[in-house]
Design a protein that fits this description.
- The chain is α/β, with parallel strands linked by helices and about 200 residues long.
- Helices cover about 35% and strands about 15% of the residues.
- The N and C termini lie far apart (about 45 Å).
Length: about 200
């Protein structure tokens, strides 16, 4: 059974709209399992892009308490810019005094990135890790019919369950992002600006 008692959990999730929605069930599990812990979302921003960001989806909901971001640069000087960004983020994380990392980025068994990321966050003072165990093997491209793989949302939940945290059955994770009345009103207002859909669902 899980014996964690975190005070501050850093949820590390990269990607934009789709990637973020698929980790919502895992974020909900952390919120329910550790109601007194502060949940801080760490996500990336692709320089020069106009993607819907993870913070745009989850900030202001009851699922997380606040957000941190770092910028990923592309181009001629990207390596130096990204290195400086990582050093700056490391300094910030050390000041944050975070005790637990929830590793929700897409990863597979044997990926070098996982251990590299573990060492990076250990340098930031983090000692407890959720989501780095129970990784699935990377699907092999054999040229034959594609093999069946676990749903991404269930895969992240399974990684939480690997250290003893109770998780819902496969296919039963809660994807609700807790939209409030203001969100729904804004959506309805936006819909009035669109052409008629003919009453389709």
């Amino acid at each position: 059974m899980n014996a964690l008692n975190p005070c501050r959990i850093l949820i590390f999730s990269t990607g934009s709209l789709g990637d973020t929605l698929l980790v919502v069930p895992a974020v909900r599990v952390l919120r329910e399992q550790f109601p007194l812990a502060e949940l801080v979302l760490l996500s990336d921003v692709q320089a020069g892009s106009h993607y819907v960001l993870a913070k745009d989806i989850l900030a202001g909901t009851t699922l997380i308490d606040r957000t941190l971001t770092y910028v990923v640069h592309r181009g001629v000087f990207s390596r130096l810019s990204n290195l400086l960004g990582k050093l700056s983020l490391l300094t910030l994380l050390r000041r944050e005094r975070i005790d637990t990392l929830a590793y929700f980025v897409e990863a597979y068994l044997g990926d070098r990135r996982v251990e590299r990321d573990r060492r990076y966050f250990q340098l930031a003072g983090i000692r407890n890790f959720i989501g780095m165990e129970g990784l699935e093997a990377r699907p092999e491209g054999t040229g034959l019919a594609m093999q069946s793989v676990i749903n991404r949302a269930d895969e992240v939940l399974a990684r939480i369950g690997a250290i003893g945290i109770p998780i819902p059955q496969a296919g039963h994770g809660n994807l609700d992002v807790n939209l409030g009345s203001n969100d729904r009103h804004a959506c309805e207002k936006w819909r009035t600006t669109l052409p008629s859909d003919g009453g389709r669902p």
